[in-house]
Amino acid sequence: MRPHIAVIDDDEKITALLRRSLAFEGFEITTAPDGAEGLKLLSQRQVDLVILDVMMPRMDGWEVCRRLREAGITSPVLMLTAKDEVTDRVKGLDMGADDYLVKPFALEELMARVRALLRRRSDKTDDIGYFRYDDLLLDVDGRETLRGDRRIELTAKEFDLLHLFMQNPKRVLSRDLIMERIWGYDYSGESNVLEVYVAMLRQKLEESGEKRLIQTVRGAGYVLKGDS
Are 136 and 205 in the same domain? Predict the structure, then answer.
């Protein structure tokens, strides 16, 4: 399942830019032109992240954020504002925002903050016992793996390796980091053990012709990403 992001901003140019850019990165996008419409949208549909402008007609971003948190909606909120005053940033964070970006902003920085907030949210899903990425489901508590409707039998190490990838979607993981997390600092086995396990994991995940999700980044490591 693709992460779903809501963009709530009355600036049509910014909304169009974010819609194109986020969709290009593989996210599902829903937009609203003001705070009141945005609050209505978020009360009707669950999203993984909210990008929320502060200064909007009918209802400003601060009030939207405050009402979201009062309603028990816990989706991360990235607030956008033209003001760079410390008091404004503090006010947004006090209302329940998770991050703050001042306009005009660099698109690369916004994307980095979006990825960081989604990773943080993905880590928290460990508390409820499962992770999702694309058509892949990992049930941590039950130690089960599903690709669509197909159940996949994994060894303990294969499961742990996939769990690490699912905790860090679209993040390149170095060989050293993976070896440390899965086998420990003092692992002294064959040097190609990681490559062997990645190959076995890919074979099981792609057994019915599914697209590749674990990609090799030459000279850097591996990444869980849907693009081939």
Answer: yes
